[in-house]
Amino acid sequence: MTNIKKFSVIFVGLLVLSLIFTACGQQPTPAPASSDSSEEAAEADTGAAAETEAEAPAQDKFLIGMSQANKGEPWRQAMNDQIAAAAAEHPELEVVFADAAQDNAKQVADVENFIQQGIDLLIISPNEAAPLTDVVAKAYDGGIPVIVLDRKVNGDKYTMWIGADNQLIGRTAGERVAAWCKEQGHSPCNVIEIRGLEGSTPAKERGDGFREGIASNPDVTIIASQNADWLREKAIPVSQAMFQANPDVHVVYTHNDPMTEAAIISAEAAGLNLDDMFFVGIDALPTPDGGIRSVIDGRIDATYVYPTGGAEAIDYAIQILEDGATPDKEVILDTQEVTSDNAKEIYAQFGGQ
């Protein structure tokens, strides 16, 4: 065989082998998936994700932080007690309490601490509105539901506010005083006012409302007004000084019952005739040392029920945390006027002991 023939045979053989190896290594090209197949796959993925989500356990424990302005007022201790009692009916709830002791800076720190603890919901009764506004907004903006009780903060960065209408209570008290002064024929009819903590919204609203109420009788005059910060122990020296400077007093209006009791003590010590005077307070706690009992005993002439909102706060907390509810921005609680005519009935109504 010539070299040319040998080369030709070798070339042909190599070509045949190359074609065989190429055919063996070739993989079939898959047909493009139809749109129906893509949708089915997407639905399968979605179904699997939904099944995984459904299998994830729901939250079964909730931590609530309760920031109290102070526990020096019996009314505020009653609020804490009612929150604790209502929460005890729900084992999934844990409530931790902090007492600001009328210190704005401490209450801010208390709320900051709650945020760091990872609370699920904040309940707060602010000491004063302006100093607590920013930290409440911080909690709210951070995704923590916030229930504000009694006293308010500025703005609207909170979930809801629960409380009674302090302006209405003050106005009703003023109307009662205006009528009493007219009945007694006092002209002028001199009033001293002992106010709550300056900067707290109830103090302003109870004061403004009272002035609206007495406006119906031009003979009624507020001859002295001073803050005692809601505290009985502070109201004693305050009222002593007020009576010393203004011995001709017909009416004492205070922003809560403990301060009314303090004024009664000071009036007795000053030798004033309590039978000729009219004492008006607010709170009407159904406790042995509360305002309703004082009306029954003939010390306070009129007081006004101011619900703490403690039980209601827990009710709404459950709705928010467990049901995903969006409550009304404001919930206004009812009030009642308490006088000697209805004091025993209202005392029994609220479970007084």
Structure description:
With 353 residues, the protein is an alpha/beta fold. The chain folds into two domains: 62-164 and 309-334, Rossmann fold; 166-304, Rossmann fold. The chain has twelve helices and twelve strands. The chain has helices spanning 3-25, 35-55, 74-88, 104-117, 129-141, 166-184, 201-214, 232-245, 257-269, 291-296, 310-323, 343-349, and strands at residues 62-68, 93-99, 121-124, 146-149, 160-164, 189-195, 220-227, 251-254, 278-280, 303-304, 330-333, 337-338. The strands form three sheets. It has a six-stranded parallel beta sheet with strand order 2-1-3-4-5-11, sandwiched between helices. A four-stranded parallel beta sheet has the order 7-6-8-9, with helices on both faces. The radius of gyration is 36 Å and the shape is elongated. The model is unreliable at 1-56 (pLDDT under 50).
End-to-end gap: 130 Å
The share of residues in helices is 40-55%
Tally the structural domains: 2
The helix count comes to 12
Overall mean confidence score, pLDDT: 88
The geometry reads as: elongated
Q: Runs with pLDDT <50, length 5+?
A: 1-56
Strand content: 15-25%
> Strands of the biggest beta sheet: in what spatial order?
2-1-3-4-5-11
- Secondary-structure-derived class: alpha/beta
Question: Which architecture of the largest domain would the CATH scheme give at its second level?
Answer: 3-Layer(aba) Sandwich
Count of distinct strands: 12
In short:
The protein has 353 residues and is an alpha/beta fold. It is built from twelve helices and twelve strands.
